[in-house]
């Protein structure tokens, strides 16, 4: 009699899970699969953001190198005007041969909205003039962000060693020997997953540093 009850209990233990137990396990499995899927999707999104940010940083660095070369080579205009026309906190206007024609062009970098623009005006006539109506403006760097109370452009006189304060804005053009450009770029402004990238560049105007 005891043997018969023992065999009955053993058979019931081997009968498997009940329907309720199966449903609970299935529900847990579904939750785990969804969680893993969402986590993988989040990783993919973050990876894409990082890739975009890195590409953006590379593009910005290339643009800054172009700007640096142009500022460094600033020279007197085709009509003899000083190399620097104006030096504000959000715009910088100077003359340089950016079109490689042998004649200096008027170059205007300026910030508006969240974009750094570049405007170039070729000289015309004799004596040479730079009509604003012929300025060609292009997007230079997008997604630019300025820290509150900071300046996109700041300027220093000849003899700057790294400790002096910038010239008062707007700077007197004839006192400008070095230009600092500083800003941040957020490649994807809709996401806080990747922080903005800071950029800073100090450029000496080769023809003016010794003035």
Order of secondary-structure elements:
HHEEEEEEEEE
* Overall number of domains: 1
Strand order of the largest sheet: 1-2-3-4-5
Spans of at least 5 consecutive residues with low confidence: 36-54
Total helical segments? 2
Strand content: 25-35%
What is the residue-mean pLDDT, rounded to a whole number? 81
Radius of gyration: 32 Å
Please give the alpha-carbon distance between the first and last residues.
Answer: 115 Å
Fold and architecture overview:
The chain has 211 residues and is α+β, with helices and mostly antiparallel strands. The protein has one domain (45-204). The chain is 31% helix and 25% strand. It has a 5-stranded antiparallel sheet, with helices on one face. Strands 6, 7, 8 and 9 form a 4-stranded antiparallel sheet that branches. The longest helix is centred in the first third of the chain and has 54 residues, at 19-72. The N and C termini lie far apart (115 Å).
Task: Please name the defining characteristics of this protein.
single chain; 211 residues; alpha+beta; five-stranded antiparallel beta sheet; four-stranded antiparallel beta sheet; 9 strands; 25% strand; globular
Give a short summary of the structure.
The chain is an alpha+beta fold and 211 residues long. It has helices at 2-13, 19-72; strands at residues 84-87, 91-96, 105-112, 115-121, 136-141, 144-145, 153-156, 178-185, 197-204.
């Amino acid at each position: 009699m005891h043997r018969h009850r023992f065999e009955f209990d053993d058979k019931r233990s081997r009968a498997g899970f009940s329907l309720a137990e199966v449903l609970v396990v299935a529900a847990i499995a579904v939750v785990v699969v969804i969680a893993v899927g969402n986590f993988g999707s989040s990783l993919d999104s973050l990876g894409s953001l990082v890739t975009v940010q890195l590409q953006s940083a590379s593009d910005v660095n290339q643009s800054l190198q172009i700007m640096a070369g142009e500022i460094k080579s600033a020279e007197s205009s085709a009509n003899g005007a000083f190399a620097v026309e104006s030096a504000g906190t959000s715009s910088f206007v100077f003359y340089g041969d950016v079109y490689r024609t042998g004649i200096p062009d008027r170059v205007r970098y300026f910030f508006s909205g969240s974009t750094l623009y570049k405007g170039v005006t070729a000289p015309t006539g004799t004596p040479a003039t730079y009509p604003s109506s012929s300025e060609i403006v292009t997007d230079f760097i997008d997604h630019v962000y300025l820290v509150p109370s900071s300046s996109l452009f700041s300027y220093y006189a000849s003899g700057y060693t790294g400790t002096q304060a910038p010239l008062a804005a707007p700077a007197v053009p004839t006192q400008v020997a070095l230009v600092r450009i500083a800003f941040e770029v957020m490649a994807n402004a809709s996401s806080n997953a990747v922080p903005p990238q800071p950029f800073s560049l100090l450029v000496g105007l080769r023809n003016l540093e010794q003035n």
